[in-house]
Every structure is written in structure tokens, then in C-alpha cells.
Amino acid sequence: MDSFGLLIDGFTAALTPVNLLYALIGVTLGTFVGVLPGIGPAMTVALLLPITFNVPPTSAFIMFAGIYYGGMYGGSTTSILLNTPGESASMITALEGNKMARRGRAAQALATAAIGSFIAGTIATLLLALAAPMIAEVAISFGPADYFALAVLAFTAVSSVLSRSVVRGLASLGLGLVIGLIGIDQQTGQARLTLGIPQLLDGIDVVIVAVGLFALGEVLYVASRLRHDSPDVVPVGRAFMDRSDWGRSWRPWLRGTALGFPFGALPGGGAEIPTFLSYTLERRLARGRAREEFGKGAIEGVAGPEAANNAAAAGTLVPLLTLGLPTSATAAILLAAFQQYGLQPGPQLFDHNPDLVWGLLASLFVGNAMLLVLNLPLAPAWARVLHIPRPYLYAGIVTFAALGAYALSASWVDLIVLYVLGLLGYAMRRFGLPIAPAVIGMILGPMAEIQLRRALAIGAGDVTVLVSSPVAIVFLALSLLALVLPLVRRLVRR
DUF112 domain: from which residue to which, for each copy (predicted)? Predict the structure, then answer.
């Protein structure tokens, strides 16, 4: 059956009342947490992982996808109203969006962000549905050396892109790889790094790692810098756009989509680069009134980056679903969610679990439509969410995280590990180490180790087997490029 027919089957699953309810819960939660500075979709999905054990996989992933897209939508609200991005990808939106709000055009800024996100998300999801099966077919031919090289590419790309320095990114990755080694070696049966604690023989559950590093670490970091004053919120009004705003927005929406999706699909591409490129492109193409308004609140500077942001969010699902390769923090948590259900994203996922994959892809279209309905009329309501006292908010998160971790196996050791990882997450933020490489290292590290051992066994110990295929050579060359490029840029600046 072709992709279009499978997508229609996916809509049959996504449009059931139960899954529509989960989609609504997901997009509402995602928008809520996107509005709150410092609480992103990765943290929310991590917190919800422990309580979704009894939820069917398709419904759970429909909710997680709604949180992912909703977080991207909600991040624009704080960028525009408070000049405080809820997500790093929303930083560029704040440049023009907040200036529009201070000129009394907050409603128009929120409207172009919501509509642009809807258009970009819809187009990018359609591209995802078309591209993912083709990439999955190619990936079926990968051997152990190719998968090991792919993991190396993920390690280096994420470490170099998601960090202010390559060294800090690799240090975070190293911590994640060490955490992934804890437990029994699958080949020799020897216990590794368990400190004689029987509960650690099975390793540390990825849910505890995600909740500890993301949620608990973020709470401790914010608490150490807590301000009790409620932020000043710019009045919103009714979100609407006149004919001039529509005329100035539709081209940036399309250009932002064209930039965002390819970058999101690249390993380590992320949403930060295409949003910046979109802003730069719109500024260079601006003419007349738009050129005069750039730097003072140009609507093109909101429309383009927001479209690029949401298109990149759909693009990150391409390597995740087809190769099992997470290219963002939220994608890493989604990979942990797949493993929680005993599923491994990759080319065989499309063959073994087509209902799940195509139901998930169809739900992205449904979630996009729900987000548009939620964001346009409810923008003033989302702005009021910012008045929730932060001590109450973060105390609730700590309690929820502890209950979720304990519910996994009712073990006090899990709680101690959670608190230790929370302190580690705080220390990493305090000293500027990114969190995403650590989580990706913990998740992909065991897979990379297994594939490396298989490749060396096939080659009878000859290390040249790791560069015996063109695919592996390309991946390793890209890995080297990801490490060298930041150093070259620094030398050029000097």
C-alpha cells in the first residue's frame, strides 16, 4: 500500500474519540508548558512517561506529539509578550515580536505566529509522511558498522550543535555514556558500575534519567535563581490580522517552512539555525515599510522564524522514526518513550507497527488544527498562566517527578538515583553543560556498543571493518566535520 493509503488508515486511528481526547490533552499541555519560561516539551514528556504505562502506545504517542507541537506554539507567546522565550527555538521570534507587542500589535504578532505555525506544521508533516517511508527502505540495508557510524554521527552532531562549545558537549555526552554502562554487560554477563547494589543490575531506567536530568535539574536550577515577582504581561486583545498583515506574512510563512524542514531532518540540525536564517533572509528581502520596521517590530520577523521553528519540529521526527536517531532533546525523550513500550524506532518500525506510525503522523495534522483553534482565541488566557507563583509550580513538579519515578518499580533506590541525577542536572546547568547530549548518550550508548562488537566480530577483530562500507565512511566523515567546523569558525573569527 502506498503512503497516501497508509496515511488514510492512520486518520482512521487518529480520529477515534479516545485518540482525539489524547491529542487535545497533549496540545493543551504542550501550549501550557510552552508558555511557561524554562519548562519545555522535553521536560513535560519526561514527567508524563511514568504515568502512561497503562495507556495504549498509539494513544500515548499521539499525546506526546501534541505536547511537542504545542510546546513550539506556546514558546512564541512568552517571546512576544515578555521577551522571554519559552524554548530556545523561540529566541528569534522575540526580536521583532516583543517590539510589535510594545507598539500595541501583540494581537497581530500572536496571530501571524499561530497561523504561520499551522501552515508550516501542516506542510512539514505532509513532507514527513512522504519522506519517512523512503528513508526507512534505504535504512533496511544498513549493517552493524553503518549503525555504529550513525550513532557516532549522532553523538558528535548533537554535542557540537546543542552546546556553546564542543568540549562541553562532549563532556556531557561522556556522562551519558557512563550512565548507559551501568548494569550487566549483555555479552559477558559481568556487572558494571553497580557499586554492589542489586537494584542497579538491570541498569538505570531511561525514564528516571530523563526526569532527573531534565525536570528535577531544571527545578533546582530555577529555584536557585527564583524571583517572586510576577512578570509584567503586555495586554493582548483579540488576535486578528488585516489585509496588509496577511499580504506581508504569507511569503515568510512559505520561506520559513522551506528552511525549517530540511534543517530539522539533519542530524544535529535543530530549529535554532533555520529560525535565525529565516530572520536574516526576511530582513534582507524587506522593502519599503517592512525595511523601516525591522528592528522596531516587523511582522515578517515573526512570521518567518515561527514557520521555520514548527517545520523543523516536524523534520526532527524524520531521523527519529526512520533511523532511531534523536536530533533534539524532545526527540531523545520520545526515543525513551518508544523503548518504554518495547519498541525500537527505525526502518522495521514501519513494517512491524504501521498502525502506530501512521496513526502518529495523522495525529500531527489533527493536533495542528487543534492548536490553531486553541491559540487564536485563547491567547489572553495563556498570557494569564504566567501569573502562577513559581514556588507552587516547581514544588508540584518535584512531587510529580518523585511519584512517577517511584511508581516504576516501587523501589527506594530509584528515588535516590532520581535525586542524584537531579543534582547532576543542576550542576550541569550551573557550569554550562548541555543536557541533551547526556540523555542521547545514555540511550544510544548501549546500542552503539552492541553494533561495534557485532561489526568487530564479523571482521574477526579487524578495525578496518568499521570503514568497509560507503555509508559508514560518509557518516564518519560527517562526524569529523561536525567536530572540526566549530574550531574552523573560531579560527576564522580570530
Answer: 20-440
Q: Which cell goes with 85?
A: 522565550
Show the cell assigned to 446.
548501549
The Cα 250–Cα 246 span in angstroms is 6
Q: Give the tens place of pLDDT for each residue, 305-336.
A: 888 888 888 888 888 888 777 777 777 778 87
The residue with cell 495534522 is 365
Distance CA 270, CA 260 (A): 9
- The torsion of the CA quartet 134, 370, 28, 49, rounded to 10 degrees, works out to -30
Nearest-angstrom CA–CA distance, 451 and 149? 9
Residues pairing with 184 in the sheet: 191
> Per the structure block, which three cell numbers stand in for 377?
482565541
Contact between residue 238 and residue 108 where contact means Cβ atoms under 8 Å apart: no
In the block, residue with C-alpha cell 504515568? 51
What would the grid cell of residue 417 be?
Answer: 538515583
Q: What is the pLDDT of residue 85?
A: 61
Q: Where are the alpha helices (DSSP H) in 227-271?
A: 243-265
**What does the H/E/C string look like for 177-201?**
HHHHHCEECCCCCCEECCCCCHHHC
Q: What are phi and psi of 105, to 5 degrees?
A: -115, 35
Rounded distance between C-alpha atoms, residue 424 and residue 439, angstroms: 12
Cβ atoms 375, 163 nearer than 8 A: no
The total number of residues written for the chain in this structure = 494
Q: List, for the chain, all residue ranges whose pLDDT scores fall below the cut of 50.
A: 228
List 353's β-bridge partners, or say none: none
Q: What is the pLDDT of residue 11?
A: 86
Q: What is the pLDDT of residue 236?
A: 58
Query: Which residue is associated with the grid cell 517511584?
Result: 406
Distance CA 432, CA 494 (A): 23
pTM for this entry: 0.70
Q: Could you tell me which of 260, 293, 265 has the C-alpha nearest to residue 277?
A: 260
How does DSSP assign 115-151, residue by residue? HHHHHHHHHHHHHHHHHHHHHHHHHTT--HHHHHHHH
pLDDT > 90 fraction of the chain, expressed in percent and rounded = 0
What confidence score (pLDDT) does residue 6 get?
A: 79
Helix (H) or strand (E) holding 402: helix 390-409
